[in-house]
Design a protein that fits this description.
The chain has 12 helices and 9 strands. The chain has 2 domains: 2-62, no CATH class; 72-280, Rossmann fold (3-Layer(aba) Sandwich), CATH 3.40.50. By secondary structure, the protein is an alpha/beta fold. Helix 7 links the parallel strand 4 and strand 5 (161-165). It is globular and about 65 Å long. The protein has helices at 2-14, 20-32, 47-61, 66-70, 93-103, 121-129, 142-154, 173-177, 201-206, 209-212, 220-232, 248-256; strands at 72-75, 78-81, 111-115, 134-139, 161-165, 181-186, 233-242, 260-267, 273-280. Strands 5-4-3-6-7-9-8 form a 7-stranded mixed β-sheet, sandwiched between helices. The structure holds S-adenosylmethionine. S-adenosylmethionine is lined by residues 87, 89, 93, 116-119, 121-122, 138-141, 144, 167-169, 187-189, 210-211.
């Protein structure tokens, strides 16, 4: 077991995969159905398990991220099915979820809109944590919506959630949504188009482009969401937005010119301003 483990870690290291030992642990844990800390307690892997480990390693050597190979990823307290059709949920996005969870108890039976739901990780976590809440998950990608639906079923919150396949740049977008909400949550695409090429292979090849590309400035989706959010929110409704590196202050400027007041900006663990929380005046 130890020699085989070290061989895999060595291969990942030679392919310049960051944290090769940890990723090897994750591969073994996935195949052996153990937690990463338990893998050395088990007896040697069977031939079938060795085959699986080698197959996963081959894909990882081509820089496919582990969660995209496994087809699922943990987010907040839950596990989400994922594929190359959806952005892999990021730990940074849990900051937005935690900020929303602080506000939701003051709203009775909250109705929440997620603009750009992807896998569904944000809205579905909020609904799972608030059984009396309901919501609407919107995405331009029909494939992403199918994945979000699959996750909603697995989490048993599908009765609380509606799905709409729509483009927020469409002129009739607010009519397609057709109602008002207590809260909007959104992690829109925010990478400036010219920077996409500089991203790691893991991201630029395996996350969908429409989940990343924020237009020439990186702010195009925020600008559009700031226009439509006042129509989609009840008076004093909340909006929580994930921000890219160094974007939070400009996002605040965009939204305050559309009638919103800043409540707070929340930093991630690296000290980056990651989540902007505003309220409609
Ligand atoms: C950064 S991903 C976020 C996914 C998920 N909410 C998360 O946090 O992991 C942005 C999502 O917005 C969707 N999207 C991009 N442009 C859109 C548009 N114009 N209208 C609707 N959805 C859009 C993408 O398909 C993608 O699923």
């Amino acid at each position: 077991m130890d020699t085989f483990f070290l061989q895999i870690a060595q291969k990942l290291s030679e392919a310049k995969i960051e944290n090769p030992q940890w990723e090897t642990r994750l591969i073994f844990a996935e195949v052996l159905q153990k937690s990463p800390s338990e893998i050395f307690l088990t007896t040697s892997p069977t031939i079938a398990e060795i085959k699986k480990i080698n197959h996963i390693t081959e894909q990882r050597l081509r820089h496919k991220p582990l969660d995209k190979i496994f087809g699922h990823r943990g987010f907040y307290k839950y596990d989400f099915f994922i594929s190359e059709d959806v952005l892999s949920p990021r730990p940074d996005t849990e900051i937005l979820v935690e900020s929303a969870l602080e506000i939701l108890p003051i709203i009775s039976r909250p109705n929440i809109l997620d603009l750009g739901c992807g896998s569904g990780c944000i809205i579905e976590t909020l609904l799972k944590e608030n059984p009396l809440a309901s919501g609407c998950a919107v995405d331009i990608s029909a494939q992403a919506l199918s994945m979000a639906k699959k996750n909603a079923k697995a989490l048993a919150i599908d009765k609380q959630l509606k799905f709409i396949n729509a483009d927020w740049f469409a002129e009739d977008f607010t009519l397609q949504i057709g109602k008002k909400f207590d809260m909007i949550v959104s992690n829109p695409p925010y990478i400036p188009s010219a920077e996409i090429e500089t991203l790691t292979t893991e991201v630029k090849k395996y996350d969908p482009l429409e989940a990343l590309d924020g237009g020439a400035t990186g702010f195009e989706s925020y600008e559009r969401i700031a226009e439509i959010a006042p129509i989609l929110l009840r008076n004093n409704g909340y909006i929580l937005l994930e921000a890219g590196y160094n974007q939070a202050r400009q996002i605040v400027d965009i939204f305050t010119t559309h009638g919103f007041n800043l409540l707070k900006i929340v930093n991630d663990l690296a000290g980056i301003e990651r989540c902007v929380v505003l309220q409609l005046d």
